[in-house]
């Protein structure tokens, strides 16, 4: 049986099996440490009975007033453990933390080419709020969907009303 537990500094030396996927953004150690120190409650791993990291989620809270929200910075599951519902479990965890923080919604960015992830998020109740042009730099530059899901505090689901001009440049993202 897998275990959901808080991410620790030592986990950074054991999560290569998860981060080697071409769709996973890999950051420098200082980036992970910043999240771990500023938003530890948003950083969890799923661990196998043998102690192997199966996946993790890293997020934060940000914004102000009705834009106060939880944000998924990274969610990834090792290719060996996909299609077991671990990503949905991790998303539920982050949504629960965001609800406790009195956030109005949770948002995330996903590559427009990542149809499997987009479908999963849609099945979890997320909508495509807008398209962010050239969000992912590299070879090739790729756009992202900004996907959102309202939480309990957003009783009228205002955060899920798509923009009238749903395409923005990456430098316009708040």
UniProtKB/TrEMBL annotation:
InterPro entries: Acyl_CoA_acyltransferase, GNAT_dom, NatB_acetyltransferase_subunit. It catalyses: N-terminal L-methionyl-L-glutaminyl-[protein] + acetyl-CoA = N-terminal N(alpha)-acetyl-L-methionyl-L-glutaminyl-[protein] + CoA + H(+); N-terminal L-methionyl-L-aspartyl-[protein] + acetyl-CoA = N-terminal N(alpha)-acetyl-L-methionyl-L-aspartyl-[protein] + CoA + H(+); N-terminal L-methionyl-L-asparaginyl-[protein] + acetyl-CoA = N-terminal N(alpha)-acetyl-L-methionyl-L-asparaginyl-[protein] + CoA + H(+); N-terminal L-methionyl-L-glutamyl-[protein] + acetyl-CoA = N-terminal N(alpha)-acetyl-L-methionyl-L-glutamyl-[protein] + CoA + H(+). Residues 2-152 form the N-acetyltransferase domain. GO terms for cellular component: NatB complex. GO terms for molecular function: protein N-terminal-methionine acetyltransferase activity. It is an enzyme of class 2 (transferase). The keyword Transferase applies. It comes from the Eukaryota. Its EC number is 2.3.1.254. Keywords: Acyltransferase, Transferase. Component of the N-terminal acetyltransferase B (NatB) complex which is composed of NAA20 and NAA25. This is N-alpha-acetyltransferase 20.
């Amino acid at each position: 049986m897998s275990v959901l537990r808080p991410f620790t500094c030592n986990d950074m030396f054991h999560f290569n099996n998860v981060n080697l996927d071409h769709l996973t953004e890999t950051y420098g150690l200082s980036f992970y440490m910043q999240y771990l120190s500023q938003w530890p409650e948003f950083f969890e791993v799923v661990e196998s009975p043998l102690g192997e990291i199966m996946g993790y989620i890293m997020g934060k809270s940000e914004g102000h007033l009705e834009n106060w929200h939880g944000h998924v910075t990274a969610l990834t599951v090792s290719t060996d453990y996909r299609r077991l519902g671990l990503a949905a479990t991790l998303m539920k965890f982050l949504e629960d933390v965001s609800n406790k923080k009195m956030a109005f919604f949770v948002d995330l960015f996903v590559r427009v080419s990542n149809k499997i992830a987009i479908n999963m998020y849609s099945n979890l109740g997320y909508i495509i709020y807008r398209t962010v042009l050239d969000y992912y730099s590299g070879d090739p530059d790729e756009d992202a969907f900004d996907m959102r899901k309202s939480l309990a505090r957003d009783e009228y689901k205002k955060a899920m009303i798509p923009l009238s001009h749903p395409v923005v440049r990456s430098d316009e993202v708040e």
